[in-house]
Amino acid sequence: MLSGINHGGNLGCDLYISGTAALRGSAYHRVRSAAVSHYLRRGVPLDWNAAARRAAAALSEAIDRHDPLGEREFWSINLPHPDPGDPEPAVRLCPVSREPLPVAYTQEAGGFRYGGVYAERPREAGSDVDQCFGGAITLSRVPL
């Protein structure tokens, strides 16, 4: 099963939401799965054709160069958002960051609103957040 390309990153602890949530269900049923998400930077145009090529490269890397997924595992792939004309990003196998996105809550009529700046989240050295923010395509094996 393939989910994506998601418009927005699912890095670190965020990988348990969005399209990756659907993959957890597949992985529970022992279906090989991968989720592809695209980190976004404000002011930089998104090239969906380049994103598709990068996603294919990451999937090929996962299938051809790494051990097959174990039972109840899935791949989380995050694409960086390079500037136009930058060299093609490398694919890096890395762990998922354990640092959550810091958010602040404000009370409004009828409930609460949360906010945070995605690009300012902690960059645990070598993690998917660190590698993707640094310009690499991240490939993370996620066990359930």
Write the layout of secondary structure elements.
Blueprint: E1 2-7, H1 19-28, E2 34-38, H2 48-65, E3 73-79, E4 91-93, E5 104-108, E6 111-115, H3 128-133, E7 137-143
Parallel strand pairs: 1-2, 2-3, 4-7
Antiparallel strand pairs: 3-7, 5-6
Describe this entry's structure for a reader.
The chain has 144 residues and is α/β, with parallel strands linked by helices. The protein is built from three helices and seven strands. The strands form two sheets. Strands 1-2-3-7-4 form a five-stranded mixed beta sheet. A two-stranded antiparallel sheet has the order 5-6. Strand 5 and strand 6 form a beta hairpin. The longest helix is centred in the middle third of the chain and has 18 residues. The protein starts with a strand and ends with a strand. 35% of the residues are buried. The mean pLDDT is 91.
